[in-house]
Amino acid sequence: MTPHRLTRDDARRIIVRAQLLDADRPGDVVEVAEQLGEIKIDPTATIAPCEHTVLWSRIGWSYEPGQLTKAVELDRLLFEFGGTFKPIGLLPLLLPAMRTWPQRASSREWLEANAMFRADVLARLRAEGPLTAKAIPDTAQVTRAPDGWSGTNQVPLMLEFLMRQGEVAVAGREGRNRIWDLAERVYPTGLPEYDEEEAARLLAERRLQAAGIAKQKSPWSQVGEAGELATIEGSKWKFRVDPEALAALDGGDDGGGRVALLNPYDGMLFDRPRLSEIFEFDYVLEQFKPKPQRRYGYFAHPILMGDRFVGMLDAEVDRASEVLRVNAIHEFLPFEPEETEMVRAEISDLAEWLGVAVTGLP
Length: 362
Prior knowledge:
Layout: E1 4-6, H1 8-18, H2 29-36, E2 39-40, H3 50-59, H4 65-74, E3 78-81, E4 84-87, H5 91-99, H6 105-113, H7 115-128, E5 131-132, H8 155-164, E6 168-174, E7 177-182, H9 196-211, E8 213-215, E9 228-232, E10 239-241, H10 243-250, E11 259-261, H11 272-279, E12 301-305, E13 308-318, E14 323-331, H12 337-354, E15 357-359
Parallel strand pairs: 1-9, 14-15
Antiparallel strand pairs: 2-4, 3-4, 5-7, 6-7, 8-10, 9-10, 11-12, 12-13, 13-14
């Protein structure tokens, strides 16, 4: 099949639409999760936690954090897995890989050495669940040293492993603390079944759906042979494009662009090579850089205007003073007056959503 030939403008529009960042806003939390495939969970709340800013940047003023809680804990339309919220429709596609997890020898050996500990955790959940990790005794026979992400308590690690194997699941949260239970009491029954090959193919298609267009062989997007082959003017890369996204592009009416303020952990920013190749945006998260080496700020939010990245917002919420403090708006190129007003309006909307005033807005 002859590859589709796309301009850079076409490619950017496809990606922005696939990420639900065009003018046609989605209606609710589940719609966003279904299209994006996952919503990253991260507690860094310079402005607001990632899962909430991801949803606000798509849905807008009508999004409330309680909507996410309801979708996960009451309606069970989303589930938590691997540091993300995913639509429940993806669970059957993940189950085949869960059955053969882990592949790493050191993880298998740790599980085998802690067979009694594993049984203790499952028995405790069966008898008393749902429970937080703190409510489960650590009876590990073999321990892993702290790695910077986990401490000496082996219970959180065992729960993570059991989640990866499909034995336990996150039933909800108390603040930032996860509440665990047996997977059979959290996940729905009667799910469709797939073999590993079919599940992998369908997962690749869902990843391409979220990406719109992605490099054919990329560890960041992992779309494999999903979709159709495409080339982009000025790029030597081979791409895969989602046929439905391509058809929508050919459909004509462009809903127009808008300003979006993106959390640094937003999925739109995950594939850094694609950002550079298609958007000419070399994004670097400065959170872990020493302060003197930061150019834009500790947790600066990229500013997307239409289909181009135009600047970085360095801002933080001061809850004591009930303000969103704008430290700087870094413009990659000087804004036109209309662009300045669009960015100011989006920041003002963000402050209103957060329930605070805005200060320092130039």
